[in-house]
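Per-record layout

source: Sphingomonas glacialis
name: Threonine synthase
length: 466
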Amino acid sequence: MRYISTRGSAPTLDFRDVTLAGLAKDGGLYLPESWPSFSAAQIAAMQGLSYVETAVAVMLPFVEGTLSEDDLRTLCTQAYGRFAHAAVVPLAQLDERNWLLELFYGPTLAFKDVALQLLGLLFERFLTGSTQQVTVVGATSGDTGSAAIDALAGRAGVDVFMLHPKGRVSDVQRRQMTTVIAPNIHNIALEDASFDDAQALVKAMFNDPAFSGKFALSAVNSINWARLMAQIVYYFYAAVRLGAPERPVAFSVPTGNFGDVFAGYVAAKMGLPVAKLIVATNVNDILHRALSAGDYSQGTVVPTPSPSMDIQVSSNFERLLFDLGGRDGHALADQMRGFETSKAMRLTNAQREGAAALFASDRIDLDDMALAMRWACEASGQVIDPHTAIGLAAARRADLPADVPIVTLATAHPAKFRDAVERATGQRPVLPARMGDLFEREERYASLPGTFEAVTAYIAERASAR
């Protein structure tokens, strides 16, 4: 399997190199040259498989030429052995058609663990025996940071610099990052900044030859293909338990950076019968506007109780636009350069029509988010976090046939957002016992201005050069 950039000018890479590279040298994002395809019989054969064996079956085509089936199985067994539920990502039924796919049983209580526990092991494997020192630079709206830090803390060959917008993540999210005291972990709180600002800084570092030339930069954000690859698995795992391939299944995905829902798109391209992918946004609704009206124009980020979705530039949307636009990297590069200059873009007819075939979208405000949290609690005894509630609200008003099950991705444990959950439901969720002392742990992080100069100077003083 070989990987190409969405912008058409970067070198083609194998799976090892694409994992360590993160962002392509031309500023684009990597994708496989072609999508693997599974027959109905191959999908049916996944029924009854464990999560590890499902992961091996789904991911094996993507790692061809780099990892053997036994290698992949060993890595998946180790990655998912740390999850607190035997099913890894169990399904919970809410009513006759609505289900939750609970993705928060990993060590940091969020769906990012599903991918990042594996990514940490991939980094370690690919760097073992090498003199290469990788500098991981990431931006987080809350959950990626803690999941990446847990996966990479103490690992040889990797320095981690994680940027988060100061005061715009929950107290639990912040402490999960800043209380990991390891010599290779560096947390940076950006003052007066949004996640979009942090994400823009990360991309600028990759695209600045003077800086990127000094360090072997890599990424753990969902711009890293290996992240998305691991997330494809749970779409297959859930769908076959609800009748696939004999019947289609819909998924409602609380969405900010478009990575999680793009993994669902890839699953559909591989042959999984996906009835619809519902893109659920909060009031930061650039993706809803793009999918419903073709208007991909950047607004001002509004802080909300669902901070992981407080995003106005969705990096992974570029991958969808590339695939729907005939995989013309040079045309997409021109389109994205126009967006980066004007902060506005119209989708082409081909992109709009291609998206409409599989995607629906909805914008969920604070009242509807709270109502969804209350309904889940009262109707089925399920306490859910604000992000999951946005997905559930969109699922419950989706216009789909009555016999199509809808799976809402439950992306975080409710205890990560205790205040918002308590306001909506009257219940204050408790952290699991393994994290019960979180608020007694020492914190360590640097507060910096959100400027390229300040952040790169900080990293340059602490990172290992090539």
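summary: The two ends are 27 Å apart (CA to CA). The mean pLDDT is 95.
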